[in-house]
Design goal:
- By secondary structure, the chain is an alpha+beta fold.
- It has one domain: Orthogonal Bundle (Arc Repressor Mutant, subunit A), CATH 1.10.10.
- The protein has 5 helices and 4 strands.
- Strands 1-3-4-2 form a 4-stranded antiparallel sheet.
- The relative contact order is 0.22.
């Protein structure tokens, strides 16, 4: 997964903890980050997300997702880039991420 300067506090796949992953994704802001990453064709810088929170609060949410193993972050120059750990999550919790994304899409559709 090495793309740039790494951020070292994300778990290895063998250390994934389902309650921690579930708790991380359950927060509406973090779920918005996950859905935006899932829809993105490339890795996304932190500043490119559309979130209804202050950037310092967004940093907290990115950290929670990274430390749970949901996203991988790395630096590309001065930008902190994000990528969804889709393959790792699917290998550890088959079908979980797809179910979460499907439910989020249905919820978003019914809210509009």
């Amino acid at each position: 997964m090495a793309r740039g300067r790494e951020i070292a506090d994300e778990p290895e796949v063998k250390d994934f903890d389902f309650p921690r992953v579930l708790n991380a994704i359950a927060d509406p802001i973090r779920l918005a980050i996950v859905t935006q990453l899932a829809a993105a064709p490339n890795d996304v810088s932190c500043g490119s997300f559309i979130l209804p929170v202050h950037p310092s609060t967004a940093t907290h949410h990115f950290t929670a997702l990274r430390q749970a193993g949901v996203i991988h972050q790395y630096y590309a120059g001065t930008s902190r880039m994000n990528v969804l750990r889709r393959d790792d999550l699917n290998a550890t919790f088959p079908g979980f991420l797809d179910a979460v994304l499907s439910a989020a899409a249905k919820t978003q559709t019914s809210a509009t």
